[in-house]
Design brief:
The complex is a heterodimer of chains A (about 400) and B (about 110). By secondary structure, chain A is of the alpha/beta class. Chain A folds into three domains: about 170 residues, FAD/NAD(P)-binding domain (3-Layer(bba) Sandwich), CATH 3.50.50; about 120 residues, FAD/NAD(P)-binding domain; about 80 residues, 2-Layer Sandwich (Enolase-like, domain 1), CATH 3.30.390. In chain A, about 25% of the residues lie in helices and about 30% in strands. Chain A is globular, with a radius of gyration of 22 Å. Chain B has about 110 residues and is of the alpha+beta class. Chain B has a single domain, classed as Beta-grasp domain (Ubiquitin-like (UB roll), Roll). A five-stranded mixed beta sheet of chain B has the order 2-1-5-3-4. The chains are: A alpha/beta (about 400), B alpha+beta (about 110). The interface between A and B is medium-sized, with 27 and 21 residues. The complex binds flavin-adenine dinucleotide (FAD) and FE2/S2 (inorganic) cluster. Flavin-adenine dinucleotide binds next to helix 1, helix 8 and strand 22 of chain A. FE2/S2 (inorganic) cluster (FES) binds next to loops of chain B.
Chain lengths: ~400, ~110
């Protein structure tokens, strides 16, 4: 049963990141006029994370440019932004959120947009061992990098690879180790792993796959290197750990909400408590007979906007259209769709340096990785959104104009 | 400061002052101009920061690079001459007086 919500009822959003901000903006755009509070535990107002491992770390983008909205926005939209505060408890029976500063916020509807946090290595904290999630993390790394230093990146996912590429540009000597047999193993096909392995090696990254970290070595609380699972010893001045993230679900769990690799929501972004919604990196949602969790800006925005709409009494289904990008060296990677169950990959040579990998499951197109080929990305995104049929042989011939795929 | 006018699809004009060094997209974002989504934050990866540049400005802007060109071809109702991605236009003093019109939709 849907409960009618007055547009004046109080709404609280926990997590002032990409999803939290998108939801709060959307609520105001849709005419919600009641108290609206955005609570975030970081000191900064909502900012974008993607540049942290790219332009910001390179020193090419000033800090102010990261902020998703100017500071005047919050007052203009009558949006209460509480930064530097943690939501510590959800009292569902009283419909109140307790904050670390001792205050309590009443809500009619609540959005959990708590994001994810980096997985850490076991063992004590060492100086010189860093992660890449927040602006504070990026500042710590930016402070530590110096040309000539030896950097060890642990983990060959997108964050690790971007950190490696940026560090090379900054003049560091970079080694990257990936415990799995290949980099990007969970998120891309062999062809894409091969492409990025070559790219990184061509730029001087010592990239090692199938070899994990046994343990770090230290002197006086500062990292000095690592011993790898093959017994080799690598000296290092800095270590960046990029071994994935964990969704921030503890608050939801403690409140008794159903969680399953994320806060479980239905197609309407509703958790197991109909007054509470979740969106972004923290939410696991139904997608084609399975439950998935996406870690991307596009998902954070779109899902948050659907959640916001439904908080005002609508019943919109969230139709995820997964897409992602990553910048490494001179390559812009754009991904449409989701890698997961393909049984065939077709490579297409694009104009100039462009190249793309098309993932098929039987006859059905599942995803496309486009390297320096934005036209392919744009076409693939539309093809996937429209669930249009695609002929693999047509794709493989670079002389064929992809526009034909949109005309059918 | 550089003066830029953003005209919404419905005709509402926003004349704002933007600091050199930012992009035309950031000028809209920082001044609350609706209609430019900029989902990718300026990475030239999403094409949701598309505008039509006023005719007299087409030749006064630095040309599109290949990536912008390709992204634009598949933006919402692109115009071969006037379409630009605002995240790819750096604000410089030469842009003072720039006028851009927003499309009806971004995607
Ligand atoms: C370095 C880096 C590069 C990336 N690059 C890309 C890219 O190129 N393309 C792409 O699509 N995506 C990229 N991503 C992923 C993208 O940034 C995330 O998917 C997106 O930020 C998710 O938004 P969110 O709002 O769900 O979570 P977040 O942005 O993480 O926001 C959640 C916020 O909630 C706060 N919070 C958590 N618990 C509480 C609590 N109890 N009380 C108060 N506040 C709380 C967190 O501290 C955080 O500030 C990148 C991420 C990183 C870290
Ligand atoms: S902001 Fe995404 S392409 Fe311009």
């Amino acid at each position: 049963m849907t409960e009618m919500l007055e547009t004046t009822a109080p709404i609280v959003v926990i997590g002032a990141g990409q999803a939290g901000l998108a939801a709060a903006s959307k609520l105001r755009d849709l005419g919600h006029a009641g108290p609206l509070t955005l609570v975030g535990d970081e000191p900064e107002p909502p900012y974008q994370r993607p540049p942290l491992s790219k332009a910001y770390l390179l020193g090419e983008m000033a800090r102010e440019r990261l902020f998703l909205r100017p500071s005047a926005f919050y007052a203009e939209r009558d949006l209460t932004l509480l930064t530097g505060r943690n939501a510590t408890e959800i009292r569902r029976d009283e419909r109140q959120v307790m904050l670390s500063d001792g205050s309590a916020l009443p809500y009619q509807h609540l959005l959990l947009a708590t994001g994810a946090r980096p997985r850490l290595l076991p063992g004590p904290d060492l100086q010189g061992v860093l992660v890449m999630r927040s602006l504070a993390d990026a500042d710590r790394l930016a402070e530590a990098v110096r040309p000539g230093l030896r950097l060890l990146v642990i983990g060959g996912g997108y964050i690790g690879l971007e950190a490696a590429a940026t560090a090379v540009k900054l003049g560091l000597q970079v080694t990257l180790v990936e415990a799995a047999p290949r980099i990007l193993g969970r998120v891309a096909a062999v062809e894409t792993s091969d492409y990025f392995r070559e790219l990184h090696r061509a730029h001087g990254v010592d990239l090692r796959e199938g070899v994990g970290l046994a343990h770090l070595t230290e002197a006086a609380g500062r990292v000095t290197g690592a011993v790898l699972t093959d017994g080799s010893h690598l000296p290092a001045d800095l270590v960046v750990v990029g071994i994935g993230v964990l969704p921030n679900i503890e608050l939801a769990q403690a409140a008794g909400l159903t969680c399953d690799n994320g806060i479980s929501v239905d197609a309407y972004c509703r958790s197991s408590d109909p007054a509470i919604f979740a969106a972004g990196d923290c939410a696991s949602f139904p997608w084609r007979n399975q439950r998935i969790r996406l870690e991307s800006v596009g998902n954070a925005i779109d899902q948050a906007e659907v959640a916001a709409t439904n908080m005002l009494g609508e019943s919109c289904e969230y139709q995820a259209k997964p897409w992602f990008w990553s910048d490494q060296f001179d390559v812009k990677l754009q991904i449409a769709g989701l890698c997961g169950r393909h049984d065939r990959v077709v490579t297409r040579a694009g104009a100039g340096a462009g190249r793309s990998h098309w993932y098929f499951h039987g006859d059905r197109l599942e995803a496309v990785d486009a390297m320096n080929d934005p036209r392919v990305f744009m076409v693939a995104k539309r093809v996937l959104e429209g669930d249009r049929p695609v002929d693999a042989a047509f794709i493989a011939d670079p002389a064929n104009d992809l526009r034909a795929l949109l005309a059918s | 400061m550089v003066s830029i006018t953003y005209i919404e699809a419905n005709g509402t004009a926003h004349r704002v002052e933007v600091a050199p060094g930012l992009t035309v997209m950031e000028g809209a974002r920082d001044n609350g101009v609706p209609g430019i989504h900029a989902d990718c934050g300026g990475a030239c990866a999403c094409s949701t920061c598309h505008v039509y540049v006023a005719a007299e400005w087409i030749d006064r802007l630095p040309p599109r690079d290949e990536i912008e060109q390709d992204m634009l071809e598949f933006a919402w109702e692109p115009d071969a001459e006037r379409s630009r991605l605002t995240c790819q236009i750096k604000v410089t003093p030469e842009l003072d007086g720039l006028i851009v019109t927003l499309p009806e939709r971004q995607a």
